[in-house]
Amino acid sequence: MAGIVVKPRARILHGHDWVFSSEVLKVYGKPADGEVISLKDGKDHLIGSAIYNSRSQIVARRFSRRKQQLDLDFFKRRIAQAAEYRARRGVHPKLCRVVWSESDGLPGLIVDRYGDHFVMQTLTLAMDMRRELIVDAVIDLFGEVTIIERNDAPVRKAEGLELRTNVLAGSVGSQIEIEIENVRFEVDLLHGQKTGFYLDQRHNYAVVAGYARERRVLDCFTNQGAFALTCARGGAAEVTGVEENAENIATAKQNAARNELNARWIQQDVFQFLRASEKAGAQYDLIILDPPSFTKTRSGLRDALRGYRELHMRAFKLLSKEGVLATFSCSHHVSDTAFFQTISDALVDARRSARRLRRFEQAPDHPVLPTIPETEYFKGFLLEMMPGR
To answer: How far apart are CA 385 and CA 389, in angstroms?
Structure first.
């Protein structure tokens, strides 16, 4: 088997599963891109099997510490192990992320489940080359289900892969319906956000909605209206959802009508809305901040933190004296510590004081590996304003 020898200080020797091009000591056996290779240290000891792509900055991604091929039995075993782990953690078996890339030993593979519909992303060349095997494994494990590939994520370009969306097995209409916290949502698996819906927030909707009863709620970056509508279902006095994307606003309105729930929907840039609301003297009792990632690269960290600081400062100014803020970040490069410090700085800017009620953690169907920081991206906090401070 062809392979590579890693340099003495390569991070894979310290628990990580990636080998960057700068960490390669030598390549032997002329491996082809997408091929399974052996990884060895400088003493010729095997340190695992990996997928290889010379066109990527991450030239090798380890998937086993032993010699292993990517065959049907391997995919069935790993996907079954991933599903069993989620079952042990009490995750809803038919509405969850079934496979989360490196966290499940399948680097570059993401599989989300919506009932009998599975949405798959193959974000590495090796996984993309074996997508038919993966489809066969899913069908063998879960039966005659519908499988859709949502390979329209820009990150595929780093692996030299084209962008595409297809139905790989079964059939699907333009939309399906799911239910979360007694609210029904229309999900477009072929064209919606990510794989159709933000499943990483599913277990937080009920938590936030628990603070909504008889309160004035503002849901910023409402997307398809999930937080807004679960808060409306939870007895909010009034609900406002703000979103810049016209298609998302249209979907949110349809979801509200489907559930016979009342909400006010505003298509506008959130920062512009918050500035205008402050000038108008508006106040809310519960504000939700769930923006898209503010940076995809480490070089954009400073600008991201500046954006988060302004966002939170303006939200704090709109909160009533005992108002509650639920805030989230999905920017991997913004650490939990940096995010909370930015929130603290924004409190100072707004001349407000708050108590932290809880920390939101990444959902159990998106498991985190301590040795691979890249598997963690989600963080959030719930805060309550302190009156008279």
So the answer is: 9
